[in-house]
Amino acid sequence: MHALELSKRYFNEIALPCFKEDFHEIYKYTAAGLVGNGSECFGYDDELSMDHDWGIDFFIWLPYSESASVPIIREWKSRLFQKYPPDFIRKQTQHGACIDVMTIDDFYRSLIGFPNGPASISEWRKIPEENLAMSVNGAIFIDNSGDFSRIRKYLQNFYPEDLRKKRIAAKCIALAQTGQYNHLRTARRSDWVTLRHVLARFHDAAVSIVFLLNNSYRPYYKWAFRRMKELPVLGNAIALHLQNLALANEFDEKGIMFQHEEIECVCKFVAEELRRQDLSASHDEFLVTHGEEVQGKIKDESLSSLPAQIYV
Q1: pLDDT tens readout for residues 123-156
Q2: Distance (Å, rounded) from C-alpha 19 to C-alpha 24?
Q3: What whole-number distance in Å separates Cα of residue 46 and Cα of residue 50?
Q4: Are 284 and 274 within 8 A, CB to CB?
Q5: In what order do the strands lie in the sheet with 31-34?
Q6: 42 alpha carbon, distance to own chain's centre
Q7: Distance CA 259, CA 249 (A)
Q8: How far is CA 237 from CA 3, 75, 176, 211, 303, in A?
Q9: pLDDT tens digits along 168-186
Q10: Fewer CB within 10 Å, N or C, the chain?
């Protein structure tokens, strides 16, 4: 039982007929759906999600020209929920996302800072990746003008290619530095706290590069691994080895070597995919070499002038 499905059903069966009757003219320009913050927007809500900020709800988005109608429709929506109470009323907490009536401009501005999406690499760099993931999740129930969907489709096209390459290059370096280089050195020093940190950083870089190789935004860390497993390029393959690493808690010589073998398997998969996407031609097993090759393919001077290991 997912809130997104329940919300869409309530909207189509209850809210939509009433809205069309009460706001016939505005309806021509209206969009509605459930997008943004919350596990339900990713389809990951479960029984544990139901204790807070969960239930039936939906956004109504209006063009900027209809800004004056926002408070009127907000009040209408409140009365609608009172007249036709949803089976599962959303419990709003102080820190939970507010699902509201908004203009399209205000919605995207609140989520990514730019009402029409970022227009330059410098603007793209300002947006947290998890916010971009939230801007393209969920579902649109209606979009009569097409304006909301136009911005959404623009964002779904992913980062400018040079920015994607810059981030891939940096993650290659991170995988090499943490996994291929520092993992064994830290273990041989018996620095177990740092070793845990090395493994965590390797895991984070591995998850990130899979999203980049899939042209898909990485969501909030709680859902990143789950979403990664669903991705068609390397998702399942990398997930298996990261799962093995997470469960490898023996820090004797045999256990450390098992961890390192899993690390090398991840790096091998990444190197093969870099070659497949024509991002690197290197057959070196060390991912620093691949990162430097990817960096060399960047045309934008503001990105190509930065060291390969810098993540922007």
Answers
A1: 999 999 999 999 999 999 999 999 999 999 999 9
A2: 7
A3: 7
A4: no
A5: 101-103, 59-62, 31-34, 139-143
A6: 9
A7: 9
A8: 30, 49, 18, 13, 30
A9: 999 999 999 999 999 999 9
A10: N
Residue whose token pair is 């209809």: 66
- Which two tokens mark 216? 């898909």
What are 131's two structure tokens?
């916010």
Work out the number of other CB atoms within 10 angstroms of the CB of residue 288.
Answer: 20
Please say whether the beta carbons of 164 and 218 come within 8 A. Answer: no
Give pLDDT tens digits for 32-75: 999 999 899 898 977 877 767 788 899 999 999 999 999 999 99
Amino acid identity for residue 19 in this structure: F
**By percentage, how much of the chain surpasses pLDDT 90?**
89
Rg (CA), the chain: 23
pLDDT of amino acid 92: 73
The answer to whether the CB of 291 falls within 8 A of the CB of 165 is: no
Do 45 and 54 meet the contact criterion of CB atoms below 8 Å apart? yes
Q: Are strands 59-62 and 31-34 parallel, antiparallel or unpaired?
A: antiparallel
Handedness of CA 79, 85, 86, 90 (dihedral sign): positive
In the numeric block, which tokens belong to residue 254?
A: 């045999």
The amino acid present at 77, given as its one-letter code, is: K
Report which residue type is found at 204: D
